[in-house]
Amino acid sequence: MEEGKKDVELVRCLYCGRDIPDNHPNCMHCGAPSHFQKRGRLDVQKKFIIYFIILTISVLLLAFLLPR
Ligand SMILES: [Zn+2]
Questions:
Q1: How far apart are CA 38 and CA 13, in angstroms?
Q2: How far apart are CA 48 and CA 37, in angstroms?
Q3: Ligand 1 center to residue 33 CA distance, Å?
Q4: How many angstroms does the Cα of residue 28 sit away from the middle of ligand 1?
Q5: What is the DSSP pairing of strand 10-12 with strand 19-21?
Q6: What's the 49 CA to ligand 1 centre distance in angstroms?
Q7: Distance CA 18, CA 6 (A)
Q8: Could you tell me the end-to-end alpha-carbon distance of the chain, in angstroms, rounded to an integer?
Q9: Tell me: the pLDDT tens digits for 4-61?
């Protein structure tokens, strides 16, 4: 009944550089919050992609609106 628990994703701790299981709230080596690190990195990536899309759309709109 407890399948799926074996499929633990490993994330690298940014503070001590060791691999820690994703289901641990804190790094077992140095105590740094692992989930915060992972989500923070994902958030930054998402923000960057959104900014990039907005920038591309703005440039395209500008190119269409500007006469020649
Ligand atoms: Zn650590």
A1: 9
A2: 17
A3: 8
A4: 7
A5: antiparallel
A6: 28
A7: 19
A8: 66
A9: 456 778 888 888 888 888 778 788 889 887 655 555 566 777 888 999 999 999 999 9
